[in-house]
Specification:
The structure is a homodimer. Chain A is built from 13 helices and 7 strands. Chain A is α/β, with parallel strands linked by helices. Chain A has 2 domains: 211 residues, Rossmann fold; 49 residues, no CATH class. In chain A, helix 2 packs antiparallel against helix 5 and helix 5 crosses helix 11. Chain A starts with a helix and ends with a helix. Chains A and B meet through helix 3, helix 5, helix 6, helix 7 and helix 8 of A and helix 3, helix 5, helix 6, helix 7 and helix 8 of B. Chains A, B: This is LAO/AO transport system ATPase.
Chain lengths: 321, 321
């Protein structure tokens, strides 16, 4: 199947060609890039929801609940489960992904896990590639779930149309679990496991932190809500979905809001692509004549310092590439 | 103070010049780089310990306990608390850092928090810069503590001579909290809060996961121990320190082991420096004539795709820089 046929099959909503293109992307096949170029113009219709939070807060259980609710509305759902610390890409393998498996036989749900940084871009561009394929195949909603709270994860999830940040009561000091970067990223906060002790305090503290961080209203006039839920028995799930819908309606009420956010997403995707491509060219230049190894060896033996070595590498790169 | 004077003052162990150089680095002052070049040849003596784990597992409390124990031995201690999701660099501000403040008046302890990626390098190179300054000023032990479990944090902590990974019982499924990337990084595992229910199971599960991941012995013949501690009442802290000392002795028993790890560290620092420098040059090229904004706008309006735009940017970069 050439890139054009592959793109057409995906645009007609077929699952297997979509999965195939994701594999080709993972493998760094140049034709995958060609297919993505063709798909790009047909994307931008899906509603992208980011779900993030520390490990163990129940992100996958909440994602599972979201899938169920969107499916009840008859919407097609795609899920990209991003885990940069896992060595596995492709299927849904890891422990926390197992919960979503009850949707595995539902044709309207397409779940992919993404672990490695890609050949064509870093984590941001790789995630955007998979989101784009799901968007192009006609999924109405694409949920991007990330494990962890590192900068990469904040970047990836910050690219969604709506970002849901999940926490639980009693995660050490709550102040530890919710870092400033995450505070700014959140459109909706969820405190999961509200059956636990300290739930009320956790919600109040979060609201206090949002006030402290410059008021709960963002620059588009959106007030970030804090919703308490218990994913296991279903308490609060409707309020959570209502908050997500409200944010989506808020974004769509003024086309500039959504457009501004998506431009930001495009910018980050582009920079990520460029960075990965340049670093890959650089590696090729450095691989010639054991360049990098020699430099590392010289630095280790105290004959050079990393800062001067860096200058050497860059001038070599610019003249040779 | 010129770079040479600054370097000399730091090498004589003075605290204020060291703090000043760290600020200059943060601010992107070129003289900071000059001073670091001069210091580089005088580094490599400090023992570097990395401490990582999910938010709320008690990393700072354990770091605090480590500081106290190393101080009892009369050793000078430096601490770099890395939090890439925080917008604050410099002092020790955030909630979880407060616990270390009891050492704030101890001249033998030097604590710095590091939030931003630097001007001269990303998180890896910035952290290495601060570690180097502490090393040069004569600290015997430098502890690098990172919040979160993202790839950046794994990279940063993986650069230590010994890496301590902290978890707690009942953090969702334990399998969620300990990802494969972290498993490979750990030299010593600590299960904190063993007064909690499920502690024994958590320790057993971790040991099981280590077996699964190819046996508990690494390629240098080191068996990764799992130590249960309760940082609050002090239980297990001595065993933890003993495990760290044992790993340090193991590394030093064969000079190739430590050298191989430190070469890896140098390589990552160098690549990080190069990447940041190239991206900063790229940004300059792209800032001319609204290059990036124009491209983003064209992509948003469907007149271009990010993959072709990436090619355009790279050829422009290579011809113009």
């Amino acid at each position: 199947m050439d890139p054009r046929q592959l793109a057409e099959a995906i645009l007609s909503g077929q699952i297997r060609p979509a999965a195939r293109l994701m594999r080709l992307l993972d493998d760094g096949e140049p034709q995958a890039l060609e297919a993505l170029k063709l798909l790009h113009g047909h994307t931008g219709r899906a509603r992208v929801i980011g779900v993030t939070g520390s490990p163990g807060v129940g992100k996958s259980t909440l994602t599972d609940a979201l899938i169920a609710q969107f499916r009840q509305r008859g919407l097609g759902v795609g899920v990209v489960a991003v885990d940069p610390t896992s060595p596995f890409s492709g299927g849904a393998i890891l422990g926390d992904r197992v919960r979503m498996q009850r949707h595995a036989t539902d044709e309207g749900v397409f779940i992919r896990s993404l672990a490695t940084r890609g050949h064509f871009g870093g984590l941001t561009a790789s995630t955007q590639g998979v989101v784009k394929i799901m968007d192009a195949m006609g999924k109405d909603v694409v949920i991007v779930e990330t494990v962890g709270v590192g900068q990469d994860e904040v970047d990836v999830v910050g690219l969604a149309d709506t970002t849901l940040v999940v926490t639980v009561p009693g995660l050490g000091d709550d102040i530890q679990a919710i870092k400033a970067g995450i505070l700014e990223t959140a459109d909706v906060f969820v405190v999961n496991k509200i059956d636990r002790e300290g739930a009320r305090r956790a919600i109040a503290e979060l609201q206090g932190m949002l006030e402290l961080a410059g008021g709960r209203e963002d620059r588009f006039g959106w007030t970030v809500p804090v919703v308490g839920v218990c994913a296991v028995d279903g308490r609060g799930l409707e309020e959570m979905l209502a908050a997500l819908d409200e944010h989506w309606a808020h974004q769509n009420a003024d086309p500039r809001r959504l457009a501004s956010r998506r431009r930001q997403r495009t910018r980050m995707e582009l920079l990520d692509l460029v960075q990965t491509q340049i670093m890959s060219r650089l590696t090729k230049v450095m691989d010639q004549g054991r360049g990098l190894d020699d430099l590392v060896e010289r630095i280790s033996q105290g004959q050079a310092d990393p800062y001067s070595a860096c200058d050497d590498i860059i001038s070599r790169f610019l003249t040779e590439s």
